[in-house]
Amino acid sequence: MNARLPQLISPVILDDVRGAQKMLSGVARVTPMEGSRHLTRLVGSPVHLKCENLQRTGSFKLRGAYVRISGLRPEERAAGVVAASAGNHAQGVALASSLLGVRSTVFMPVGAPLPKVAATREYGADVRLAGQVIDETLARAEEYAHETGAVFIHPFDHPDIVAGQGTLGLEILEQCPEVRTILVGVGGGGLAAGIAVAVKALRPDVRVVGVQAEGAAAYPPSLAAGRPLSLEAPSTMADGIKVGRPGDVPFRIISELVDEVRTVSEDALSSALLLCLERAKLVVEPAGASPVAALLGDPGAFEGPVVALLSGGNVDPLLMQRVLRHGMAAAGRYLSLRLRLTDRPGVLAALLGTLSEADANVLDVSHVRTDPRLGLTEVEVELQLETKGPEHCEEVAAVLRSAGYTVLD
């Protein structure tokens, strides 16, 4: 991909982004940038976290939504706006509409997390639940727009949306003028496209790297084909970047201005979220943690100083619980063991005593006594343990073996 001047090829230019920045003054927060000592040591050069998870509504989506709705003609504003989203875009549209005095209707999937539904309503939207998956919800929103004349606010595929999101690129350059690489999560592409427009116009030497989840990576095959392609069934815990097809507007920009699009695994996303929580004390959703996941997966690949954009922090508590467990497992801090013991009083207590001496925290214990593989006096015990890391896992297994236990798995 070639870092040519966006003024020559882009449907969005630097002046559009600067205009959006003026429009957002006093509306969107200039979110902080924090250094990360842990990631700096890992990468070998300075790493900074751009904390857009601390933005109003908890994500960058307010920026594009406000710019898009601000640009509507009076008769369009009078007709109201409609959007479809499982979370971040819904809240951005709801708040932007309220601030501008425009009526908003937001369709959300039936299974959308209750905190996100409640927040969208509190920001002033008329929330309607429709569809089991986002594609069905999107179709219903488009039907509503056709029926009522309300203006459909697309989450990423519009020049005004791209310009609004691009204001983050200007902030990054202002806060970290020495930056050499910017990492940004990519779903439909509006955020990465906007940042690329701003950054490449002012600093063509800065690399802009997009990051997608492996199970929802529509951009790599699309870029190879030279046109947006659709994924049949995108799948990832990072719902903020779970998009099956690139937007036409951002695709054109990304294909010209973004230097690289990488993919990260679910394990890497979990580990990144855990790192943000433990080391940076920041609540970040999986999509927002994707740039950190890229750093963890290949720390030597990025010239520093590096800015990793944490694009959002709206994570459902139940998902957070699952992701944290997944992250701890990926980091080697959970250990699952299966042992075969003689079934007699005191044996389990002795086993637990041995584990205590090994400083392993027992999370769960289950017994199997009816398996045909077991002898009449045998029991199989499965243990879920919390450990301090991979080395401690090996130590715990070694302690058990030295105490005479047979570790089956």
TrEMBL record:
Residues 336-409 form the ACT domain. InterPro entries: ACT-like_dom_sf, ACT_dom, ACT_ThrD-II-like, Ser/Thr_Dehydratase, Ser/Thr_deHydtase_PyrdxlP-BS, Thr_deHydtase_catblc, TrpB-like_PALP, TrpB-like_PALP_sf. The keyword Nuclease does not apply. Keywords: Allosteric enzyme, Amino-acid biosynthesis, Branched-chain amino acid biosynthesis, Isoleucine biosynthesis, Lyase, Pyridoxal phosphate. It is an enzyme of class 4 (lyase). Pathway: Amino-acid degradation; L-threonine degradation via propanoate pathway; propanoate from L-threonine: step 1/4; Amino-acid biosynthesis; L-isoleucine biosynthesis; 2-oxobutanoate from L-threonine: step 1/1. Its cofactor is pyridoxal 5'-phosphate. Its EC number is 4.3.1.19. The keyword Amino-acid biosynthesis applies. Belongs to the serine/threonine dehydratase family. In the native structure, TdcB is in a dimeric form, whereas in the TdcB-AMP complex, it exists in a tetrameric form (dimer of dimers). PANTHER family: L-THREONINE DEHYDRATASE CATABOLIC TDCB (PTHR48078:SF6), THREONINE DEHYDRATASE, MITOCHONDRIAL-RELATED (PTHR48078). This is L-threonine dehydratase catabolic TdcB. It comes from Streptomyces sanyensis. The gene is ilvA.
